[in-house]
């Protein structure tokens, strides 16, 4: 029995030598790849090496089919449109890998899935030998399709408060669309309602489509004017940096007290705004709430008066906004600086020449954050909303002040050209609990001015005089950042102001969304 189970030594040596030669050959093959990590001999490393060779050798394949699995609420047509035809057309392994990466990225950008994975499987029996089946597995977002919020905010400038509410529904009808509605009701009789829908991809159209309706009714602060606005906005093109939208609005400006100034007499009544607006935006800052490094730039161009009956709304409007954040390396400090400019050129003629529509002009002032908002010249801390001249006296009888001096109310006229600049220094506070919550301090300086441009004044516009009339303010404060908004508690001091400017020094509280 022992002789039957023992093999001659020479056969064992030969077998062992053959196995060692095969192992040596395999080791040499793997050692040829310089990217292979040392001591890699596991099945995962071998599979990675095989896939690398398949991708490099242009191995030809034939995609038998593409199967999408995991769509419960999402319509299959919406997922198929995002996947696209490139997966089914791939003829080589490299083409298939590139198409799979692009399809996975498009599916994730729909915002309806928590995870996306694309795998290959053997084709069913009867398929060609080089056939493969592409499996696209998606996991729909959890937590429900709806969300909402309600808040009460105080406005120290108008000495009133407002109730803000919002609703948001995602993938409600299975097209990965986002429905949203928001409203704000203030005690100063200001009412704002907005609703819209955004579809990230519709059929073969590769860019998102948006549509919004809005209604606004407000009293202009410290003015006799009331504005009512109803509008529809349709997004024609939307990418990471580019946005093209068409807007159609019906606006009514009234003066129930009949105290309007002579300069805005022609602006009263109804007007139709039909405009198209193109925006280029790039934001490379590390945060929109507290930027510490990076830059941001926005350019907005708008043409109004596309409809044949656009009364007093024919204009060309251009805005530029540039922001830079520089880290300082001490106390997590950063210097944010920015400059914004805007100009509107009227195309309509009134009784006194070319005039720009009153609501489309630039108005400076208000309690908005200097850092968050990226959208042209507007914010100037320490000055009330629409608080900068030029102004025009209302036609009502002058009021008697406490010292019996006659005064008259002023209507803010806005400006056809505006320029603002700011610098904001942020830093950590010395208390550790505040640093852990992200609460930090900042010091700022802001300056700006706007002026009117008429048909006769364009050639006589003096830049030096415009810069000499810059208003400016400085201040310090504490910033409380959250995921939804940025709250600032600031102390403002006015450095330079002119007659009829409405200012507010001292403690101010403001909320700004990113």
Q: What do these coordinates show?
A:
The structure is a single chain. This protein has eight helices and 25 strands. The strands form five sheets. A 16-stranded antiparallel sheet has the order 4-5-6-7-8-9-10-11-12-13-14-21-22-23-24-25, with no helix packed on it. Helix content is 16%, strand content 44%. The protein has helices at 2-5, 9-31, 43-56, 76-83, 86-89, 93-109, 432-436, 463-468, and strands spanning 62-69, 113-122, 131-140, 146-155, 160-170, 178-186, 191-199, 209-219, 226-238, 242-254, 269-283, 294-304, 315-327, 334-346, 348-350, 353-355, 391-393, 399-400, 406-407, 410-412, 417-428, 440-451, 471-481, 486-496, 506-512. Residues 1-16, 21-40 and 397-407 have low confidence and may be disordered. With 514 residues, the protein is an alpha+beta fold. Strand 5 and strand 6 (178-186) form a beta hairpin. Among the domains are: 58-140, Ubiquitin-like (UB roll) (Roll); 254-512, Porin, CATH 2.40.160.50. It is globular and about 85 Å long. Residues 13-32 have a biased composition (Acidic residues). It is found in: Plastid, Chloroplast outer membrane. It holds the Pfam family Omp85.
